[in-house]
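Summary of Year 1 activities. Much of the first year was spent building the evaluation harness for sequence design. The harness presents a backbone, in tokenized form, and records the residue chosen at every position. We chose the following record to illustrate the format because it has been used consistently in internal testing since the harness was completed.
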């Protein structure tokens, strides 16, 4: 991906296919059974929260947080998320409308956009455990701890 909006274009293309898929971001570390949990989950939209991600995410509602459980208003990050065909068909214009939300729907804001779009339409992402880890510099110690636990 080269431009800030390439991630949004990626989701547009996946939506046009109307096929189920699992999105896994390049900097996500997950447990050995995480993918299997998503594959066998009967829910059409599900994901894992990010461990220790105590930041708030901007957007229209600057108090979005990934610390709350999804069913209590917590934001479901795109890090490791499953979208099944019924969910895609329920929201066929989800990614086409991203440009209405933000003139340039940057990868920085897509989590918040997805949260706000689905919240306005009464959809809640099903949450899986344990949380995943974001493999950026801030989480190096958590990564080391995870390796020791495996």
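For this record, the design step produced the sequence shown next.
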């Amino acid at each position: 991906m080269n431009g800030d909006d390439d991630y949004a274009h990626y989701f547009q293309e996946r939506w046009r296919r109307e096929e189920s898929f699992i999105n896994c971001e390049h900097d996500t570390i997950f447990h050995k059974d995480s993918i299997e949990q998503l594959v066998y989950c009967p829910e059409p939209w599900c994901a894992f929260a990010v461990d220790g991600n105590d930041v708030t995410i901007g957007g229209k509602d600057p108090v979005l947080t990934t610390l709350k459980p999804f069913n209590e208003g917590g934001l479901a990050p795109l890090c490791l998320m499953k979208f099944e065909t019924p969910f895609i068909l329920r929201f066929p214009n989800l990614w086409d409308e991203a440009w209405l939300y933000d003139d340039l729907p940057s990868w920085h804001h897509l989590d918040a956009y997805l949260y706000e779009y689905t919240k306005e339409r009464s959809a809640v992402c099903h949450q899986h455990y344990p949380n995943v880890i974001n493999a950026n510099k801030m989480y190096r110690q958590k990564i080391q701890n995870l390796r020791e636990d495996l």
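Residues 25 and 79 are 5 Å apart (CA to CA). Quantitative recovery figures across the full test set are reported in Table 2.
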